[in-house]
Amino acid sequence: MAWNMLIFIMAISAVTLGCLLPAGWLPLLPHDKLLHFVAYAGLTVLAWRLAPAWPQFLLWQLGLLLAGALIELLQQLVPGRSFCWRDLAANAAGISAAAGSILLIRIL
Predict the structure, then answer these.
(1) How far apart are CA 81 and CA 44, in angstroms?
(2) How far does the chain reach from its first CA to its final CA, in angstroms?
(3) pLDDT tens digits, one per residue of 4-35
(4) Under a CB-based contact definition with an 8 Å cutoff, are residues 19 and 75 in contact?
(5) What angle separates helix 54-74 from helix 32-50, to the nearest 10 degrees?
(6) Which of 19, 29, 41, 47 could hold 94 in an S-S bridge, CB 3.0 to 4.6 Å?
(7) What is the DSSP letter of 78?
(8) CB–CB of 66/51 below 8 Å?
(9) pLDDT (tens digit per residue) in 56-78
(10) Residue 41's closest CA among 105, 97, 85?
(11) How far is Cα 48 from Cα 56, in angstroms, rounded to an integer?
C-alpha cells in the first residue's frame, strides 16, 4: 500500500505541475483534452489501487474531480493560463471512464 500511495502522490504531483506551469514553458499541445482525459483516468486507476472498496473509491473519485476543479481555478493565477470548462469536462470523463471500466471488470 505504501508503494501505491507513493506512486499516486508522484502522479498527481506531475499532473498538477504540468497544469500549473506558465503557458510559455510548455510545448504546443494539440490534444490537450485527450491529455486531461488520460491523466485523470490514470489517477483514477491509481486511486482504485489505494481504495478498492466502492464507498471509499467513490470518495477518491470525488476528490480527484475537486482537485481538477481547484487546479483549473488556480490556472487563472498563472501567466498565459485560464480556467477551462472543457478541461474540467475531460477530467470528469477520464474519471468516469476509468471508474466505469473498473466496475464493469469487477462485475464480470
Answers:
(1) 25
(2) 25
(3) 999 999 999 999 999 999 988 878 778 899 99
(4) yes
(5) 140
(6) 41
(7) S
(8) no
(9) 999 999 999 999 999 999 999 99
(10) 97
(11) 9
